[in-house]
Design a protein that fits this description.
There is one protein chain. By secondary structure, the protein is of the alpha/beta class. Helix content is about 45%, strand content about 10%. The chain has a seven-stranded mixed sheet with strand order 3-2-1-4-5-6-7, with helices on both faces. Helix 7 links the parallel strand 2 and strand 3. One of its GO terms (molecular function) is hydrolase activity. This is HAD-IA family hydrolase.
Length: about 270
């Protein structure tokens, strides 16, 4: 049977702006770090895959000195790991509060896929605890156990490298030509395409201006009866209106040209 694989942040819910960013800034304040990311600055940080990796971009000699941090790389890595653990705790609390709504259509189409016997998965560069908290919030008790979760540091290189999707496809056991990925960013799309997979893009509040050339379908959201889909690019003429249904994804798999996967960089 086919597989439907979701990215997490920006796909299941618009968590970057309303979850991760405030969690980072709250953590910075707790640790007394001389930094607060604005919405625009955090948008630039999103070009770097992974929360620890984003924080590592701050570690200039000037920042290390002003924050009173050690210069030893191993000690610095321990600080970053500790910051990230606390940030994840704050973030999961934000998700548990229920203040960030799911994006339209993700639960509906996951239910359709589950009822049809498709495999379901989430593949994300975020920490596993963060991903599982969003998955539970969006999919609920009945559907969440149907998902395989691939997240965090399970691969050597994060998106846009294809590693996380190559791992997911290998573990799920579904041929690449039978896998549909839903992403919201160019980095995520490139990761999926380089793994040889078809990719549907639903841009989030941070990624609307990115280049999604190569995606099989680009839509404002998967859509629901209450919030219909706006088609942004439809190279296969799927015409997914008023919203994306499982039948559209089946047709996508039938008509999409296969993408040659490049080798994994997993260690």
């Amino acid at each position: 049977m086919p597989a439907l694989v979701f990215d997490c942040d920006g796909v299941l819910a618009d968590t970057e702006r309303y979850g991760h960013l405030p969690a980072f800034n709250a953590m910075f304040e707790e640790f007394g770090l001389p930094v607060r990311w604005s919405e625009a600055e955090y948008g630039r940080k999103l070009l770097v895959g992974g929360g620890k990796e984003r924080m590592a971009t701050m570690l200039t000699p000037e920042f290390i000195s002003s924050a009173g941090l050690p210069s030893d790389p191993a000690e610095l890595a321990e600080h970053v790991a500790r910051w990230h653990r606390r940030k994840t705790e704050i973030y999961t609390g934000i998700i548990a509060s229920g203040t960030i709504p799911p994006r339209p259509g993700v639960r509906r189409i996951a239910e359709e896929a589950a009822d049809a016997g498709w495999s379901l998965a989430v593949a994300s560069t975020s920490a596993e605890a963060s991903v599982r908290s969003v998955l539970q919030h969006v999919m609920g008790d009945a559907l969440t156990p149907r998902f395989a979760v691939f997240a965090g540091d399970v691969v050597a290189h994060k998106k846009p490298a294809p590693d996380i999707y190559l791992l997911a496809v290998s573990e799920i056991g579904t041929p690449p030509g039978s896998v549909v990925v839903v992403e919201d960013s160019r980095n995520g799309m490139l990761s999926a395409l380089d793994a040889g997979l078809s990719c549907v893009v639903t841009p989030s509040s941070y990624t609307g201006g990115e280049d999604f050339t190569g995606a099989t379908l680009v839509v404002s959201s998967l859509g629901d009866p209450q919030e219909t889909t706006r088609v942004l690019d439809d190279p296969l003429a799927l015409h997914p209106t008023p919203f994306v249904r499982l039948d559209h994804l089946r047709k996508l798999l039938t008509e999409a040209a296969p993408h040659p996967a490049r080798p994994s960089s997993r260690e």
